[in-house]
Design goal:
- The protein is of the alpha+beta class.
- The chain has 6 domains: 64 residues, Zinc/RING finger domain, C3HC4 (zinc finger) (Herpes Virus-1, 2-Layer Sandwich); 238 residues, P-loop containing nucleotide triphosphate hydrolases (Rossmann fold, 3-Layer(aba) Sandwich), CATH 3.40.50.300; 82 residues, no CATH class; 138 residues, no CATH class; 161 residues, Ribonuclease Inhibitor (Leucine-rich repeat, LRR (right-handed beta-alpha superhelix)), CATH 3.80.10; 173 residues, Jelly Rolls (Sandwich), CATH 2.60.120.
- It contains 33 helices and 37 strands.
- The strands form 9 sheets. Strands 25-26-37-28-33-34-35 form a 7-stranded antiparallel β-sheet, with no helix packed on it. Strands 8-15-9-14-12-10 form a 6-stranded mixed β-sheet.
- A hairpin with an 8-residue loop joins β6 and β7.
- α19 crosses α22 and α26 packs across α27.
- The longest helix is centred in the middle third of the chain and has 20 residues.
- The relative contact order is 0.06.
- It is found in: Cytoplasm.
- Keywords: ATP-binding, Cytoplasm, Leucine-rich repeat, Metal-binding, Nucleotide-binding, Repeat, Zinc, Zinc-finger.
- InterPro entries: B30.2/SPRY, B30.2/SPRY_sf, ConA-like_dom_sf, Leu-rich_rpt, LRR_dom_sf, NACHT-assoc, NACHT_NTPase, NLR.
Length: 1019
């Protein structure tokens, strides 16, 4: 059996390839989100057998209604002989084929001639959709759609971010979104309403990045309808691609004549039937449209026989002026989706591409050799940029094509790790196929013939020129403008079938396109590189030099400026649409990559000094506080240049525990964000205090907060500015947060109001899945609490736990919250509002100040008390304390008298070498063993202070702290929450040193251990 390399084109064509079918659930009823059919008559609402909502309703000759599966199962069990009677009235039907759908019995085509026309239409659509192209367009290469179709993850709603990002940046973001929002929707259920939706859905807009599977979803929907399997309440499905509509954009049509152009069988259908039947128009590939859709125009049509431009026909249909009962389904890449006004769309959905398990399943099915599949999967996972791109099915196919070729023909060769390497190998593989298949060459012959070079150079020029214009599909006029012969382009498409394609559209007009946007961007970068290498001309400059001037400019300094200008151009692009192009261009500058293209590139490329200058320039740009997306792409650019020094430096600091946020440069902060977001480990819990407890650090690490499931931001000196930033996170489509802890920050009422703006946006769009919100000790009063209650009242929320303790809410507001906890419309299960009062409106942790009293009965004889027992020092002589069972006889330690409860805070000044500790009261006091010292056992936790450094200890494990030393330190304990934090006090501000997150099982007591010549003073 042939392999199944399914390549999803970004284009909305009928010849896209698709990965093998995966064994996963198809129904959309997962997670309890049941769907109900739309538009059924009242009398068709209930099955006479199962008494449930009718599914695929059919009626017997006597007029009673059943689910098709129910009546079929009933007859199979009760009438095996084939004599079928109605379960409700007993009337017999001569044959089971007499079942009628809702449409056939009511508004459906009763005329036998019309019925025949519609059957012809179904057969035509079935023939059009049932087979798709794999590999090339040669005879015998088409595969059954149902054999390779994968139930893609389609969700309700759309990411706002993707409209302002390059699609590869969207993939980066989506790859960190471990929890997919909402239940998946089968493509067949795209017009079926969710329980919370009121009324029928008339217009659906489905978004998805290039190659994600939009067209395959359309084909599957249409095929299932044509085969009578799904959506039989629809009389006619009309599948129209914008690619084909472009061909008649200058013509005048009525809707009826337009349909007859694309569907000749409609010549026999009278105009009045279009208004009676239930029609579904599918417009595929809005991003490929060259029509000017003007939804503000007053020129609208209401009759199917009125003639106008194609643009007016479409806007009238979408707005509902023309055939208001017709269903409309539009697919688009996200960047073009805003052409349709939101008020015209009933539901927005998004095709999300492959999840991580689907990527692995693809390669397992693609390669029958399990060891080979495992090796390839492991390699893809280890190369982060490749793993991210594999979210797109077409890239999985490209990667599989390349890796299979290398493993088969060049065993032992290093596998490509960067995108540039992958696409160079892909180009080489296709050139090799051409050489053997079309030129009659042998495997060992040189890949690049003069003809092949000319073809690739022509395709590169086309790719670049059209990319600059924003065109992803090209017509004959586009090729002519680029100086490319149409006949030559047809030859190219016939030879390089897996790079460049040609389709015959309406009237056999030719349409050309690259198999994926990334292939076009790679060839565009190759063209720019080749042009500069040969002539010194920089195509990225607005005013290009003449050939005579460029001969003198092609020097090392010109090379450096060439790559620097490319970096600048990419950074200036507001939506990142040059980012992937830049990666390819920089990758092509490496000597190792140019070696792979020996024969195509006649001159060797950039010097190592040029590459180093480019690397340094990129690092300088990273230091300029770029946006997160720009910064991440610059790190990917460094990766394409094989420079990972900045990232490795931070990784080493993280692993050794020597990372100091106080000394990080802007570039190092960006590297830290890149590392955390690129990690293959899930960002389940992000604790800001591990890096810094400052608002500046929070704002730098905000993308990491957004990607985390649980964000611990307590005690990090955050205020209104931070809440404003968090508000945007909570309202974001890609927000992963289910738990947010803002306790002990100066949030105040103004900050709560900012948070509520984000909660409102997120909850309205069902993006926000926050279940736990902690605002304890945030100086919130009745006013701030009112804002929070209003936001949650307006949007029924899944919030289960709300902590507003240690604030001053007022009796009325606390009672109001309590009533909502008991309200069944709220999901709230745990509400904490005590303790409360005016005293908790004090800023900072000092509001939890706890007066320490040394327990004299525990003080070691090596320690001397003074200043009314508020100071202790390690004495030169043993003290004459009385014997006591609680006294530390061996170690120079002591405990305080009162056990800790709730939240407590204290400060101490120290000299010498001191352990500032908390311990369970049962710690051993009499033995000599090391385990009796604070921090050396599992009953105590210590901050070890010396003139040279700090470190923390627990259970005999040491963790060094990279920080300058202060001789005043503070301790904060939240006993119920299991939080123990150590701070140094500098100029009256608290600088976080370390936090233990644990569960305290016994009462805690403050304690100290002092070495000789050391002292502690309590405050």
């Amino acid at each position: 059996e042939p392999p199944e390399p399914s390549c999803l084109s970004m284009k909305s064509d009928w010849s896209m390839r698709k990965p093998p079918e995966f064994s996963e659930s198809g129904p959309s009823d997962t997670k309890g989100r049941k769907r109900s059919a739309v538009g059924e008559e009242d009398q068709l609402s209930c099955c006479s057998l199962c008494q449930d909502v009718l599914k695929d309703p059919v009626s017997t000759s006597c007029g009673h209604w059943f689910c098709r599966q129910c009546i079929t199962s009933y007859w199979d069990q009760s009438a095996p002989s084939g004599l079928s009677s109605c379960p409700q009235c007993g009337n017999r039907s001569r044959t089971r084929s007499g079942l009628q759908t809702a449409n056939q019995s009511s508004s459906g085509p009763a005329d036998v001639g019309l019925q025949k026309v519609l059957e012809e239409h179904r057969l035509s659509l079935r023939s059009r959709c049932e087979r798709v192209t794999e590999g090339s367009d040669e005879p015998g290469s088409r595969t059954l759609l149902n054999r390779i179709y994968t139930e893609l993850y389609i969700t309700e709603g759309q990411s706002e971010e993707v409209n302002t990002q390059h699609e590869v940046e969207w993939l980066e973001t989506a790859s960190k979104t471990k929890r997919l929002h909402g239940a998946p929707i089968r493509c067949q259920d795209i017009f079926k309403a969710l329980p919370e939706q009121h009324g029928a859905i008339r217009v659906v807009l489905t978004n998805g990045v290039a190659g994600a599977g939009k067209t395959f979803s359309v084909l599957k929907f249409t095929l299932d309808w044509a085969e009578g399997l799904e959506n039989q309440d629809v009389h006619v499905v009309l599948l129209l691609s914008f690619r084909e509509l472009n061909l008649i954009r200058d013509e005048q049509h009525s809707l009826l004549t337009l349909l007859r152009v694309f569907y000749p069988t409609f010549q026999k259908i009278p105009a009045e039937k279009l208004a009676v039947w239930k029609l579904l128009f599918i417009f595929d590939g809005l991003d490929e449209s060259r029509l000017s859709l003007d939804f503000s125009s007053s020129q609208l049509l209401s009759e199917v026989t009125q003639r106008s431009s194609v643009q007016v026909l479409l806007t009238s249909l979408i707005k509902g002026n023309l055939l208001p009962s017709a269903l409309v389904w539009i697919t688009s890449r996200p960047a073009a989706a805003n052409q349709i006004p939101p008020e015209c769309v009933g539901m927005v959905t998004e095709v999300r591409g492959f999840t991580d398990p689907q990527k692995e399943e693809y390669f397992r099915k693609r390669f029958s050799d399990e060891e080979q599949a495992s090796k390839i999967t492991s390699h893809i996972k280890g190369a982060q940029s490749l793993h991210v791109m594999c979210r797109i099915p077409v890239f999985c196919w490209i990667a599989a094509t390349v890796l299979e070729d290398i493993l088969k023909t060049r065993e032992g060769e290093e596998l490509p790790k960067t995108l540039t390497e992958m696409y160079i190998h892909y180009l080489v593989v296709q050139t090799k196929v051409k050489k053997i298949k079309y030129d009659g060459g042998a495997e060992a012959d040189p890949h690049w013939s003069p003809e092949s070079r000319k073809m690739i150079e022509s395709l590169g020029k086309l790719a670049f020129d059209q990319l600059e214009k924003g065109n992803l599909i090209f017509y004959e006029s586009d090729l002519t403008e680029c100086g490319i012969d149409v006949r030559a382009a047809s030859v190219h498409s016939g030879v390089f079938t897996q790079i460049f394609k040609e389709e015959r559209g309406l009237y056999q007009d030719k349409v050309f396109f690259f198999v994926h946007l990334s292939v076009q961007e790679f060839l565009a970068a190759l063209h720019v590189h080749l042009t500069f290498s040969k002539s010194g001309v920089n195509l990225l400059e607005e005013q290009q030099t003449t050939s005579q001037e460029s001969k003198t400019r092609k020097s090392e300094s010109a090379e450096i400026l060439f790559y620097q200008s490319a970096v600048d151009k990419a950074l200036q692009s507001p939506n990142g649409h040059r980012d992937l192009f830049l990666r390819f261009l920089l990758g092509l500058s490496l000597q190792t990559n140019q070696t792979l293209l020996r024969g195509l590139l006649t001159q060797t490329g950039s010097s190592s000094q040029t590459n180093q200058k480019t690397i340094q320039y990129i690092k300088e740009k990273i230091s300029e506080n770029q946006s997160t997306e720009k910064s991440i792409n610059l790190f990917h650019c460094l990766n394409e240049l094989n420079d990972v020094s900045l990232v490795e430096e931070i990784k080493q600091s993280l692993s050794s525990g020597s990372l100091s946020a106080e000394s990080l440069s802007p570039a190092q902060w960006s590297a830290l964000v890149f590392i955390l977001l690129s990690s293959d480990q899930d960002l389940d819990v992000f604790d800001l205090k591990k890096y810094s407890n400052s608002e500046e650090a929070f704002l730098k690490l905000l993308p990491v907060v957004k990607a985390s499931n649980k964000a611990i931001l307590s005690g990090c000196n955050l205020a209104e500015k931070s809440c404003e930033a968090l508000s945007l996170v909570l309202g974001s489509h890609f927000c992963n947060l289910t738990e947010l802890d803002l306790s002990n920050n100066d949030v105040e009422d103004s900050g709560v109001k900012q948070l509520c703006l984000g909660l409102n946006d997120g909850l309205k769009n069902a993006h926000c899945e926050l279940e736990t919100l902690r605002l304890s000790g945030c100086q919130i009063t009745d006013e701030g609490c009112g804002s929070l209650v209003l936001a949650l009242d307006e949007n029924l929320t899944r919030l289960k736990k709300l902590d507003l303790s240690y604030n001053h809410l007022g009796e009325g507001r606390r009672a109001s919250l309590t009533s909502r906890r008991d309200d069944p419309n709220w999901s709230l299960e745990i509400l904490e509002v005590e303790p409360a009062g005016q005293r908790w409106l004090t800023p900072g942790l000092r509001k939890y100040s706890h007066q320490l009293t040394i327990d004299a009965d525990t003080v070691s004889r090596k320690l001397k008390l003074s200043h009314n027992n508020q100071m202790v020092a390690h004495g030169e002589e043993l003290q004459t304390y009385t014997d006591h069972p609680d006294r530390f006889d061996v170690k120079p330690q002591l405990l305080c008298k009162t056990g800790l409860t709730g939240r407590c805070y204290w400060e101490v000044e120290w000299k010498g070498r001191v352990d500032v500790s908390v311990s369970y009261g049962g710690v051993n006091r009499k033995r000599e063993s090391l385990g009796c010292m604070f921090g050396q056992n599992d009953h105590s936790w210590s901050l070890r202070c010396s003139d040279s450094s700090f470190s923390v200890w627990h259970n005999n494990k040491k963790e060094p702290i990279i920080s300058s030393v202060s001789h005043r330190v503070a301790v904060y304990v939240d006993c119920p929450a299991g939080i123990l934090s150590f701070y140094k006090v500098s100029s009256d501000s608290l600088i976080h040193l370390h936090t233990f997150n644990t569960t305290f099982t016994e009462t805690l007591y403050p304690g100290f251990m002092l070495k000789p010549a050391s002292s502690v003073c309590l405050h």
